[in-house]
Specification:
Elements lengths: L1 H9 L3 E9 L2 E7 L7 E3 L6 E7 L12 H11 L5 E3 L5 E3 L5 E3 L17 H4 E7 L4 H4 L5 H5 L10 H17 L10 E3 H4 L20
Keywords: Cell wall biogenesis/degradation, Hydrolase, Signal
EC number: 3.5.1.28
Organism: Ornithinibacillus halotolerans
Length: about 210
């Protein structure tokens, strides 16, 4: 019990002295950096943003959105992402932009053959806490688990969309190779079609001014 308490204290996120403002929405960034082994030095220019959805629905369907649980989930599987946006729109940074996070895996984007199987090298990964449709989710969880989920946990929140808009605008400002279009800002399902379904049908691209 004591060791678990110590672990919890060590994993508590550290507040940055940074506030981002836009569209009358103020958010604070928190650093919650994964171990350095969960990323690697970046050598390529950042040209893309990949949007994912994430939850801890398998282990905790009644409480799928605890940020420490998400951190431990990525840690357990040797994965990582640059940013996580929680249900209240708070942005957590798990990996520094200047490092490659392990979020996109091996796949391809037909419009960009030069990044075949190497999207991680060229991209920023953003995980949004959310749960998809029943059809999407029951590919890896039993139907009865999905049916037990609080309906408020399904889909995405307005606060998340507002924070995502601000984060994308900031990234585009810092990395001009990213353009605000559906070629440079993609879903995981666009890159790994047939293998991944996130952010899924419930993600409204129009909320971030994309189609």
């Amino acid at each position: 019990m004591l060791s678990m308490l110590i672990l919890s204290l060590l994993l508590m996120p550290t507040m940055n002295a940074v506030e981002e403002k836009g569209n009358d929405h103020v958010i604070q960034s928190h650093e919650f950096l994964l171990p350095i082994l969960n990323s690697e030095p970046r050598t390529e220019n950042i040209t893309h943003i990949v949007i994912h959805s994430i939850s801890n629905i398998v282990a905790k369907p009644e409480s799928p959105y605890n940020i420490t649980d998400i951190y431990l989930l990525l840690l357990e599987y040797g994965l990582s992402t640059h940013y996580v946006i929680d249900r209240e729109g708070t942005i957590f940074q798990f990996v520094s932009d200047d490092r490659v996070a392990y979020h996109a895996g091996r796949s391809s984007l037909p419009q960009a053959p030069f990044i075949d199987h190497s999207m991680n090298d060229f991209s920023i990964g953003i995980e949004i806490m959310g749960i998809g449709t029943k059809e999407e989710m029951t590919t890896f969880i039993p139907e009865k688990i999905f049916d037990s989920i609080n309906p408020q946990h399904i889909g995405f929140t307005e606060k998340q969309y507002k924070s995502l808009q601000i984060l994308i605008a900031d990234l585009i400002n810092r990395y001009p190779s990213i353009r605000h279009d559906r070629f440079h800002i993609i879903g995981h399902e666009d890159y790994a079609a047939g293998r991944k379904v996130d952010p899924g049908k419930l993600f409204n691209w129009k909320k971030i001014n994309l189609e």
